[in-house]
Amino acid sequence: MYEFAVEPAITKLRRPGVIITEVTAGSVSDELELRPDDRIVRVNGRPVRDYLDFRFQTAGETELTFRVKKSNGETHDIEFDREEGEDLGLMFEQIVPRQCANECIFCFCKGNPDDARPSLFVRDEDIRLSFLYGNYTTLSSITDDEMARIIEQRLSPQYVSVHATDLDVRAYLLGIEKDRADHVSEPNGCARKGTEATAG
Length: 200
Ligand code: SF4
Known about the structure:
The protein has five helices and nine strands; from the N terminus they run βαββαβββαβαβαβ.
């Protein structure tokens, strides 16, 4: 059982790992004494940034080692086996959306009534949410790490708002410099093969 959802972005220092919010009674995680507020920071030696990393690094694995920061400050390495396909019985904190750095002339957030629900004011630009929920991004501020992650974890399809293929026009529409308007060229030689983009 897994859970993930979007919540309005907040400004806070993000600590490494992903925080457990619920542990199913009687599950393997319960037997391992994992508890809400524990933070899983590594799986089989690899760092965990969020729920997606956890899912990617545990998928198909029957021999697992979790590095866990307990809520009391202790760090434990927990080695265990699970049956193939056995549910770990964990639920996690929500993904906090990365926000856009655009000033689109048509931005829907600016058109919201003041009393619209708070989630409608979140200017998300997040490749994880594009993969999970089909949210659109503009790729105007994607980092090399994010692009590498799309490729490694096959976070496909990605939904990309193109609007215009002429870079001057696209830069004008998105309210950005022209060098950020190019969503096709490969940043720093990072090959985009292995991903499938859906334009909107
Ligand atoms: S990408 Fe443009 S339309 Fe979307 S939230 Fe940002 S400024 Fe608004």
